Amino acid sequence: MDNQPILEIRHLSKSFGKHQVLRDIDFTVRPGDVTSIIGSSGSGKSTLLRCINLLETPSQGEIRFHGRDVAGRGVNPSAYRSRVGMVFQSFNLFSNLNVLENCMLGQRKVLRLGREEARARALRYLDQVGMAPYVDARPRQLSGGQRQRVAIARALAMEPEVLLFDEPTSALDPEMVGEVLSVMRELAAGGMTMLVVTHEMAFARDVSNQVVFMADGVICESGAPEQVFSNPRQARTREFLSRFLAG
Known about the structure:
Helix 3 packs across helix 4 and helix 3 (about 100-110) packs parallel to helix 5 (about 145-155). By secondary structure, this protein is α/β, with parallel strands linked by helices. The mean pLDDT is about 95. The strands form 2 sheets. It has a 6-stranded mixed beta sheet, sandwiched between helices. The protein has a 4-stranded antiparallel beta sheet with strand order 2-1-4-5, covered by helices on one side. The termini are far apart. The chain contains 9 helices and 10 strands.
């Protein structure tokens, strides 16, 4: 497998007015990596993901995709997002479209695929996440877990190189969390490159090969899960984990 970085985040900072949300963020994502970003609410995790997906414009720094800085001028955000997909906390499905149409829309509009090819792709990925029986349903007819699985299928149908997950289980009832994490575990096992903002510590510990702990807009600690979880170097990491793992 080519081990050249897919994404390199270099000295990334983001401010909203005078409020600095991210400061000097640095890390690298290689093919097949599953990187979990953990930390308390308000630590900047979701803003980081939104910057990487170009939903927010970084104030400083670089986001290199295959060595090219995509945070600068001259980048088509839609084309980039088709290769670096995102699954949102709140699903972001179109309520006026059925499940199949939701999974075809991006393929048709961004990738310019023909209707039959887009339909075949959508059905393939809906089947992969266990949602093929629901192709004619509208989002309001589905549970939260089912909607999130459709959102994952929609992202997969674009056949991205990297998938970003922004707290994909935090809007779900507890009994639905498992079905979404199961899909994500299967994707990781299949070699999908994933960047996951999550409060699911078991997922971060068991599925990731890289864990990034953020606090107050900076990376306090990063490394292999066994190091971060079993032998954290920083007092803030220890405090966060003791609180979370105790709860």
